[in-house]
């Protein structure tokens, strides 16, 4: 795919706590390589990275190689659906975010404190988050080990929202910022159940309602343009309350909800 976008040079790192201090250990970089068939592929280059055997104590029994492979596969698939929009918007930032895998202790120290969007919302306890300023998503290794779910599609759609449409991203309310990755998850057949009284849950409800309209038959590009232009979620919910019968969620943690 030929664009003016800078080539990907994404960092991979492990975040741990040493002597009470959060430390980020480089695990190499993900770069673009051209194949003989003129295809662009991503490769994990591990020069000067610590041996993977040293990561066992922080990795919760997960193989870092597997997580990086999932990240690369997800980015390949996501780039494929965004080809037309990448050409249209010519993003000036790399097409793959940086990724940091955090131990449980480290993630507790670096995770974002998420303000409630509405009175009565459930507290959201993140297990991964994306920071536009650093183009980095950080995820909790214990959360991945516990749920078996690596949130790479979700966080990479945050990245694409930011690099393609930064003004829309900045102006979007919390629900509409979550709309794009929830939409992306569903596009790739990832269906998670979010509590309705969270931005993620409202995003999910918007998509449920839109699926009953002509939106369902639109192309990916038209759906993306429609969603990203709605910076406030209320018009899409049509001022109706979300009603979910006998809603159950298995991921309750303390008084909050893991997302």
Please give the largest β-sheet: 6 strands, mixed
Tally the helices: what do you get?
9
Number of strands: 9
Overall structural domain count:
1
Taking pLDDT < 50 over at least 5 consecutive residues as the criterion, the unreliable ranges are 239-257
Computed CA radius of gyration, to the nearest angstrom = 19 Å
What features would you highlight for this structure?
259 residues, alpha/beta, 6-stranded mixed beta sheet, 3-stranded mixed beta sheet, 9 helices, 9 strands, 38% helix
Describe this structure in words.
- This protein is of the alpha/beta class.
- It has one domain (9-258).
- 38% of the residues lie in helices and 20% in strands.
- It has nine helices and nine strands.
- It has helices spanning 64-89, 104-110, 141-147, 152-164, 166-171, 174-187, 199-210, 220-229, 234-237; strands spanning 9-18, 21-34, 40-45, 98-102, 123-125, 128-131, 136-140, 252-253, 256-258.
- The strands form two sheets. Strands 3-2-1-4-7-6 form a six-stranded mixed beta sheet.
- The radius of gyration is 19 Å and the shape is globular.
- The two termini are 33 Å apart.
- Mean pLDDT is 85; it is low at 239-257.
């Amino acid at each position: 795919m030929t664009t003016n976008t800078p080539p990907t040079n994404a960092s991979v790192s492990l975040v741990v706590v040493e002597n009470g201090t959060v430390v980020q250990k480089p695990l190499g970089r993900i770069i673009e390589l051209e194949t003989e068939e003129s295809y662009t592929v991503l490769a994990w280059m591990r020069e000067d990275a610590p041996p993977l055997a040293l990561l066992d104590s922080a990795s919760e029994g997960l193989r870092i190689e597997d997580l990086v492979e999932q990240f690369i596969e997800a980015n390949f698939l996501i780039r494929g659906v965004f080809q037309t929009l990448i050409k249209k918007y010519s993003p000036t930032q790399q097409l793959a975010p940086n990724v940091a895998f955090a131990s449980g202790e480290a993630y507790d120290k670096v995770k974002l404190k998420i303000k409630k969007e509405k009175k009565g919302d459930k507290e959201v306890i993140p297990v991964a988050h994306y920071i536009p300023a650093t183009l980095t998503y950080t995820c909790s290794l214990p959360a991945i080990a516990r749920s078996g779910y690596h949130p790479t599609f979700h966080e990479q759609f945050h990245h694409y929202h930011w690099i393609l449409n930064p003004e829309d991203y900045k102006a979007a309310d919390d629900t509409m910022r979550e709309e794009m990755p929830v939409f992306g998850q569903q596009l790739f057949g990832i269906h998670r159940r979010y509590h309705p009284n969270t931005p993620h849950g409202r995003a999910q409800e918007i998509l449920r309602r839109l699926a009953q309209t002509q939106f369902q038959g639109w192309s990916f590009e038209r759906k993306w343009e429609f969603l990203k232009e709605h910076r406030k979620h209320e018009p899409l919910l049509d001022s109706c309350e979300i009603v979910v019968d006998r809603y159950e969620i298995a991921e309750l943690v303390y008084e909050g909800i893991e997302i």
